[in-house]
Amino acid sequence: VAVNLEASADAAFRTDVVKYAFTGLMRDLRGIAMATNSRRTYGLLFDWLYPSRMPLLLRAISLLTDEPEVTTPLLKFMSEFVLNKAQRLTFDSSSPNGILLFREISKLIVAYGSRILLLPNGTNIYRSKYKGIWISLTVLSRALCGNYVNFGVFELYGDRALADALDISLKMTLSIPLSDILTFKKLSKAYYGYMEVLFNNHITINSVLNLDTSTFVHIVTSLESGLKGLDTGISTQVCHYGSLYHLEMFL
């Protein structure tokens, strides 16, 4: 299936045949990824996917950003693929695979985010935009706290992968009214989970502290709203060893 999809012209990706084949492949891969609970089995999937298959995913998410029935299975697969459960993403000390994987994650999220922000909201904004955004935030959250990437390497070598991913993720979150973040439960959970991850890392927290004053105040206000909310899980993410706690410790 993957070989046939790779051979398809860009225009063909708009056809139902190609879209069904691609979404089916993403769902199958997600099922396989969920079943890989060891370094060995995960390594087999990683070697099959990287580097030869990643361009297909990037191509699909770039061409079909406005097709949530395609992008949702793709992003859900990636959210499972980057999850370091049972320490399955433990690469050898000399292996660059963690860094290479994050570069691919960055490409996908930047491609999706930069395009989704330009699309009109549509009649069902949750389906057309918010769902893809919260899954993207989940992908980044899991990658950032997976302990398989030395993020200092990106700044050291002038690699924009981390900076670009953080930049587009913040732009996506800022595009959503706070009232909507608090209304949609899955979006709210992903947003506050992502903020907790950002504020828990001395490298990524700078991406927030370097924002202009009004944007920074907006984010802090959203944390305050989460703290005052009725959802105890979210208030814990914000307060007790969560976003506000780490911000206070950093400052």
Oligomeric state: single chain
Number of strands: 0
- Beta-strand fraction estimate: under 5%
- Structural class computed from helices and strand pairing: mainly alpha
CA radius of gyration is: 18 Å
Number of structural units classed as domains: 2
The major sheet is characterized as: none
Number of helices: 15
Termini distance?
51 Å
What are the secondary-structure elements, in order, as H or E?
A: HHHHHHHHHHHHHHH
**Which percent bin holds the helix content?**
over 70%
Shape: globular
Low-confidence stretches: none
Mean pLDDT: 91
What does this 3D model show about the protein?
This protein is mainly alpha-helical and 251 residues long. It folds into 2 domains: 2-176, no CATH class; 177-251, no CATH class. It is 70% helix and 0% strand. The chain is built from 15 helices and no strands. It has helices at 2-6, 16-35, 39-49, 54-63, 68-81, 97-116, 125-144, 152-156, 161-174, 178-183, 185-199, 205-209, 213-228, 232-238, 243-250. The radius of gyration is 18 Å and the shape is globular. The mean pLDDT is 91. Keywords: Cytoplasm, Nucleus, Protein transport, Transport. One of its GO terms (biological process) is protein transport. It is found in: Cytoplasm; Nucleus. GO terms for molecular function: nuclear export signal receptor activity. Belongs to the exportin family.
What descriptors fit this protein?
251 residues, mainly alpha, globular
